[in-house]
Design a protein that fits this description.
With 202 residues, the chain is mainly β. It has a single domain, classed as Porin (Beta Barrel). 10% of the residues lie in helices and 63% in strands. Strands 1-2-3-4-5-7-8-9 form an eight-stranded antiparallel barrel. It is elongated and about 55 Å long.
C-alpha cells in the first residue's frame, strides 16, 4: 500500500514538472471556501442528506499551456465527513489535486473568463473523529486508528476568473468523489463533497 501511495504521488509530481516545462506562464494564488460533504457509496446519488458543512483553504499554482489548456495544482486543507441528528463525523485532510483546465473564453458583456476542469487528487488524513451531539453527551470518539490515512479520488469543476488589479479574482464550484474508502472496516462508503471557493491569483 505504501508503495502505491509513493508511486501515485510521484506520478502527479512528474506530471506537473513535465507540463510545467512546456508552459507559457505561471500564476500562483490562494483560495478558501466551504465543502458540503457526505459519506456514502460512490454510486448512491439520492441518499445524501447527512451533510457536514466544512471549510477548505489552500494554495494554488496554474500553468498556462496552449490553445486554452492549463494545468492547476493545489495544496489544500479540507474538512469532509457527514452529519446526522445524533453525531458529526469529522474527517479532515491535506489534499493535493492536479486539474486539467480548459478555457471557455470571455463573457460577451463583462471581463469574466470561464473554464471547466477535471483531474485526480490524493489526500492525507490529519484528523478523524465522531462527535456526539449534546443530547447524547457531547463526547468525541477518536477514529484515527479505524480510518485509512490515504485517499484517492477525482474532481470535476466549473470556474470563473475576473481581472482585478494585477491578478484575478477566482470563483470555483466542484464535485469531489473519493474512489478509495475512508473506513478500514468498510470499503463501500466514500467521501463525497460539493465545494464552493473564492480566491485570488497573482
Amino acid at each position: 500500500m505504501k508503495t502505491m501511495k509513493m508511486r501515485t504521488i510521484s506520478l502527479l509530481v512528474a506530471l506537473m514538472l513535465t507540463v510545467g516545462a512546456m508552459a507559457q506562464e505561471f500564476h500562483y494564488g490562494v483560495n478558501a471556501g466551504t465543502n458540503l460533504a457526505v459519506q456514502s457509496e460512490l454510486t448512491d446519488y439520492y441518499n445524501n442528506d447527512q451533510i457536514r458543512a466544512g471549510l477548505h483553504a489552500g494554495l494554488t499554482g496554474r500553468l498556462e499551456w496552449q490553445n486554452g489548456f492549463e494545468l492547476q495544482t493545489e495544496l489544500n486543507y479540507e474538512q469532509k465527513g457527514s452529519k446526522s441528528d445524533t453525531y458529526t463525523a469529522k474527517y479532515d485532510y491535506i489534499s493535493l489535486p492536479v486539474l486539467a483546465k480548459y478555457s471557455l473564453g470571455k463573457s460577451d458583456h463583462t471581463a469574466l473568463r470561464f473554464n471547466i476542469n477535471a483531474g485526480p487528487f490524493v489526500s492525507y488524513l490529519v484528523n478523524s473523529e465522531i462527535e456526539m451531539n449534546d443530547e447524547i453527551g457531547g463526547n468525541s470518539i477518536d477514529m484515527k486508528d479505524r480510518s485509512k490515512d490515504f485517499e484517492m479520488g477525482g474532481i470535476l469543476g466549473f470556474g470563473m476568473a475576473y481581472p482585478l488589479s494585477s491578478g484575478n479574482l477566482t470563483f470555483d464550484v466542484r464535485l469531489g468523489l473519493g474512489f478509495t474508502a475512508y473506513d478500514d472496516a468498510d470499503n463501500n462508503p466514500k467521501n463525497k463533497y460539493v465545494g464552493f471557493s473564492i480566491g485570488y491569483e497573482f
